[in-house]
Amino acid sequence: MGTKLLKRNRFTMSSFEPVVSNYQYSTVRLFQRPHKIIATDFEASWDERHDALGDIAYLSLHLLAKIRPTPKLTPYVAMHPPRELLDKPLLWDLIVIVDGKGHLLGRLASIVAKQLLNGQKVVVVRCEALNISGEFFRSKRTLYHLYPASDSCCIALARIGGLDLKYHAYLRKMTRFNPTRGGPFHFRAPSRIFYKAIRGMIPHKTARGAAALERLKVFEGVPPPYDKKKKMVVPQALRVLRLQPGRKYCTVGRLSHEVGWKYQDVVARLEERRKAKGAAYYERKRVAARQIADAKKTAAGKSQASKKLAALGY
């Protein structure tokens, strides 16, 4: 059993760059087993151990270049793994498609962010149907408390209120010297609002965080080819399971439309067209399944008659 001290640095993997450990040095022990190698980092956190374990188990040459094999670990086994290991697909090579309808924005963003950092590729569709807890409208009294009556936009914003009021307060935050250069840049589209929520939960200024964001795709509606693929839900983020009955909520699509998103009608029209095509496909599939069932029953009856004729010599 060999022990090797590794400096804290980033090693490039297939699509992301995890950090080995939070410490200056970390102890990585290699245990040789038949047909595979397992690495354990006792000082690193669980997530970092999971990243290193998955990558070493599938024998990434970049990591093996950092860790020199011990005398019991033959270089031939390290550089020429069995085919069953190479043919096995990685978990993060599979794309998970999440239907955003009925999910709470913050809860879904936190779960998606964690999966992205773990190496999972995620696609979120129908971002305009995401929910935010809290009523959309709020009294004008709160609005006048935030925006003085002398403000020119106060009368226009007083008709909106609610979460839209919070978003307008967010829109007013800008750099004093040059807002066009210094930001912050405010997104209006539902997909970009959700994207920014995820970005705030990821160290996006590091190589690891930037690589994690590259694994994310967000869309309004369900564009091709995701309209014909299986979609998932996240029970930990569903509104019907997280919010108490009777609690008020709003949709991100309505909020975006109030603050300047111009494609609500376009997305709604495309969604109606997609649902009509899906309903027609489901009807054809149901008819075909019924015909197949009838054909199987007919074939079963004919097979019994054939057996009786064969017993009589015909």
UniProtKB/TrEMBL annotation:
This protein's name: 60S ribosomal protein L16
Question: Which species does this protein come from?
Answer: Cordyceps militaris (strain CM01) (Caterpillar fungus)
Tell me, what does this protein do in biology?
A: Component of the ribosome, a large ribonucleoprotein complex responsible for the synthesis of proteins in the cell. The small ribosomal subunit (SSU) binds messenger RNAs (mRNAs) and translates the encoded message by selecting cognate aminoacyl-transfer RNA (tRNA) molecules. The large subunit (LSU) contains the ribosomal catalytic site termed the peptidyl transferase center (PTC), which catalyzes the formation of peptide bonds, thereby polymerizing the amino acids delivered by tRNAs into a polypeptide chain.
Query: Could you tell me the superkingdom of the organism this chain comes from?
Result: Eukaryota
Name the Gene Ontology biological process terms: negative regulation of translation; translation
Q: Which InterPro entries match?
A: Ribosomal_uL13, Ribosomal_uL13_CS, Ribosomal_uL13_euk/arc, Ribosomal_uL13_sf
Q: Which UniProt keywords apply?
A: Ribonucleoprotein, Ribosomal protein
Q: Does the keyword Protein biosynthesis apply?
A: no
Looking at the keywords, is Ribosomal protein present? yes
Gene3D superfamilies listed in its UniProt record: 1.20.5.4280, Ribosomal protein L13
GO MF terms held by the record: mRNA binding; structural constituent of ribosome
Q: Which family does it belong to?
A: Belongs to the universal ribosomal protein uL13 family.
Q: Which PROSITE patterns has this protein been placed in?
A: RIBOSOMAL_L13
Q: Which cellular component, as a GO term, is one annotated location?
A: cytosolic large ribosomal subunit
